[in-house]
Amino acid sequence: MTIPKLDIYPPLINTPCPAATTLEDLLTLWNCPSTGAITTRTSLLPGFPHDDTKNLYVFYDSSSHTVSSSTNPSPSSATPTQNATLNSLGYSPIPLQTYLDFIRTIAMSHPPPPPLPNNNSNNNGCSSKTIIISVTGSADDIAKCYLHIARLQSELLLSTSGSLATLAMEINLSCPNIPHHPPPAYSRDALIEVLDELKKVFILAKATGLPRIPVGLKTPPYTYETQFLGLMEALEASASGAVAGAAAAAGKGKEKEPSRSLSLEKEEEEEEEEEPECPITFLTATNTLGSCLAFTAFTDDFTKEALPTESGTGGLAGAPLHPLALGNVKTLRKMLDEREEKLGYQMQIIGVGGVLDAQGYRRMRMAGADVVGLASGLLLKGVQVFGEIEKGLGGDW
Q1: Cα Rg for the chain, rounded, in angstroms?
Q2: N or C: the chain end with fewer CB closer than 10 Å?
């Protein structure tokens, strides 16, 4: 099977954040000619139990270590020295199905802006724009998300209105703010469980005639070699067929599900005989750095944390994360290139973390990112940040 790749130009996108929550948010990003793709805020099948009093963000000044006076501030309130965000956010309160309805509305009723020079275009000069749908949940839930998204892609491909949206799925396994649930992407075994379900759902999707869509993993900031190697081992295991093989071995002796047809079982057997491949098309590196603390006030006998979590800590993003994000992208690029033969193809990287301007974009590309994403920059500056980066690049993407 042909591995679907991301085709994003210009290679600049938003990443999941509160500014990509509503239909209005997504339309604003979609209509921006300086974004080659848009990404939804991370959703679950049922939606996240968001609490406005607990799940929030503040702007942060890394030079003075001070935060904004208000929570969930607007870009218009940002000061020139605020260059980061600190958050206790979880995921979107909006369920996946509602996001799919948003995307259907966008794709069927809102043509993307005219293509930039040198962009690959079709459909009489209108370019196709990618929508990356960020999801999370259990391994089984993620597999269900894939089927929902693949069905929507099939619907859009068959649409007589000539939809110009290409869909991809990003699996967010890296949020540091879920109490008692550390980011699964730090665990090799948790990654393998997700990859196992993906390989199985690909077989089911193919058997039912659904298109294959690109799937990516959003990773947390890795800080030492063992963490990087755990990710590589999981990817290699999925590419080698070890994941599917282990699942098949575990299923021996168990009664077959009544709903499973002989034709589907035959399809799975044929799939196992095909040349192994990793189910992941791209990595998004990196998410916020957890366990970070800032104060709104402190004296000798009084302190007040900026975030309303039990310990006052949350995820840090923006300029302070930038060097670590660059290091993650460079390390992952090297490790993936060394494993290209084992994985079956060259995996793409969306580089994220502290990109606020054209220079940050250039650094991320130099580190090895195929596409550059930003969230804190969007929260701090608004959607015009993309146009500012394009202008600063002078069209040299």
Answers
A1: 21
A2: N
Q: Cα 284 to the chain's mean position, in Å?
A: 6
| Token pair belonging to 176 | 């540091």
Which of helix, strand or coil describes residue 187? coil
Say which amino acid occupies 390: E
Q: Is the peptide bond before 53 cis (omega within 30 degrees of 0)?
A: no
Whole-model pTM: value is 0.90
DSSP annotation string for 90-149: ---SS-HHHHHHHHHHHHHH-PPPPPPTT---BTTTBPPEEEEEEE-S-HHHHHHHHHHH
How many other β-carbons are positioned within 10 Å of the β-carbon of residue 296?
16
User: Each residue's pLDDT tens digit in the chain (397 positions)?
Assistant: 578 999 999 999 999 999 999 999 999 999 999 999 999 999 999 999 999 999 999 999 999 999 999 999 999 999 999 999 999 999 999 999 999 999 999 999 888 887 666 544 444 445 689 999 999 999 999 999 999 999 999 999 988 565 679 999 999 999 999 999 999 999 999 999 999 999 999 999 999 999 999 999 999 999 999 999 999 999 999 998 755 544 444 444 444 444 455 455 555 555 445 566 899 999 999 999 999 999 997 777 678 999 999 999 999 999 999 999 999 999 999 999 999 999 988 999 999 999 999 999 999 999 999 999 999 999 999 999 999 999 999 989 9
Q: How many CB atoms lie within 10 A of CB 337?
A: 12
User: Which spans in the chain are helix H?
Assistant: 23-30, 96-109, 139-157, 188-207, 225-240, 242-251, 262-273, 322-338, 340-343, 358-367, 376-381, 384-393
Give the total residue count for the chain.
397
Q: Which residues contact 272 (CB under 8 A, 6 or more apart)?
A: 241, 244, 245, 248
Q: Burial, 382: exposed, middle or buried (Cβ in 10 Å; 0-12, 13-18, 19+)? A: middle
**What is the C-alpha separation between 381 and 65, in angstroms, rounded?**
19
Helices (H) and strands (E) in the chain, counts: 12, 15
Residue 395 neighbours by CB distance under 10 Å:
10
- Cβ count within 10 A of residue 63: 9
d(CA 348, CA 216): 9
Task: For tokens 């300086």, name the residue.
Answer: 34
